[in-house]
């Protein structure tokens, strides 16, 4: 993340995650099922593992990503596990739903 505050606003709006700050450059997140953390860095490197987040309403989640300022980088498509789309968060990290 290049901006932990922007990440908290984005992921809180899209997925309803709750956060706990551990200084200005790290925040943990949770939603009762999923937990993790954000560390601030100077730049985002692309090409790492693809995190795929499950949603019961793909269209509503895509709409929430757009409304929160995320960019759709790959429109919804079918794959052997179902359907998904890819998005970039405010820092440019690519994830899928």
List the helices and strands and how they pair.
Layout: H1 4-15, E1 18-21, E2 26-30, E3 35-39, H2 58-67, E4 71-79, E5 82-88, E6 94-96
Antiparallel strand pairs: 1-2, 2-3, 4-5, 5-6
Helix pairs in contact: 1-2
Overview of this protein structure:
The structure is a single chain. The chain has one domain: 2,3-Dihydroxybiphenyl 1,2-Dioxygenase, domain 1, CATH 3.10.180. By secondary structure, it is an alpha+beta fold. The mean pLDDT is 94. β2 and β3 (35-39) form a beta hairpin. It is built from 2 helices and 6 strands; from the N terminus they run αβββαβββ.
Highest-level CATH class: Alpha Beta
Which class do the helix and strand fractions yield?
A: alpha+beta
User: On the 0-100 scale, what is the average pLDDT?
Assistant: 94
The CATH architecture category equals Roll
Write a concise synopsis of the structure shown.
With 97 residues, the chain is of the alpha+beta class. It has helices at 4-15, 58-67, and strands at residues 18-21, 26-30, 35-39, 71-79, 82-88, 94-96.
Essential attributes:
97 residues; alpha+beta; 2,3-Dihydroxybiphenyl 1,2-Dioxygenase, domain 1; three-stranded antiparallel β-sheet; 2 helices
